[in-house]
Design a protein that fits this description.
Layout lengths: L1 H14 L8 H16 L3 H6 L3 H4 L10 H8 L15 H8 L8
Helix pairs in contact: 2-5
């Protein structure tokens, strides 16, 4: 019960911080820019993206807070870069991408 109360208190405090309170649409655009950079529109990044960690490095932004995670999960286009290195994770990316065009 105490841990739950602490968690709720932290979530309320965090909701007041400027970066957390950005509109969902703006967060989605920012996440898309981060994902594009991490997916490596530059050739070196593509060549080096051979592990799950490097292929999905941008997903760290979804661990900042619940609101950021919800915003990212609600944006199917963030999940359209499918890297076969992910193995079982590919199914989750497909589900999150809904009907958005994929890039494999």
């Amino acid at each position: 019960a105490i841990l739950y109360q602490v968690s709720v208190a932290r979530a309320r405090r965090n909701a007041l911080l400027a970066p957390v309170s950005l509109p969902v649409e703006l967060l989605a655009r920012i996440f898309a820019m981060v994902a594009t950079t991490e997916h490596g529109n530059d050739a070196d990044c593509v060549r080096n993206a051979r592990t799950e960690e490097s292929a999905l490095g941008w997903i760290r932004v979804t661990h900042v807070c619940q609101r950021w995670r919800s915003a990212a999960l609600a944006c199917p286009t963030l999940w359209t870069e499918i890297d076969t290195v992910l193995g079982e994770g590919v199914a989750e990316l497909l589900a999150r991408s809904c009907n958005a065009p994929l890039s494999v």
